[in-house]
Amino acid sequence: MKLQHTLSYESDPASVFAVLKDPEYVAEKCTATGSLDSSVDVSTEGDETVIKTTRKLPADGLPSFAKSFVGDAITIDQVERWGPPAADGSRDGSLKATFRGTPMKVDATLRLAPGGAGSELRVAGEVKAGIPLMGGSIESYAAEELTLGLDKEAEVANARL
After folding, report:
1. What is the largest CA-CA distance in the chain?
2. Which of 39, 65, 115, 129 is the most buried (most CB within 10 A)?
3. pTM given for the model
4. d(CA 135, CA 63)
């Protein structure tokens, strides 16, 4: 299922990125999105900033057929890779997420650039569940939950800005 979502931030791209890569913010966004347990690692590899998180989320809201795959909680491993800034402060990146114990993944591009009241982060990609017959339903549910989570993350970031 295609995923396209734009988040708005109330500051310039350089200030927004300083928040997005702050380990304290990353931990806070994990908690704000319902994580029962999380780990955060922010590092630099060459000219890339790499943000890795592992989140354990309750499976309460999952459809019953999906809960049979994950049990009471689902663990999500996520990696964001951000390139260096352009002259206007914009950055391109990627997001990859896998859901342990499932054939599900998210693969998206990220673009942080000036826009709106300060900056916009565009997320474009695909949510894929390799489950015959039920895959479409799971993808739709996951895309909706991911969008809600991204909105919450932007809310937390804007509070820090």
Report:
1. 49
2. 129
3. 0.91
4. 12
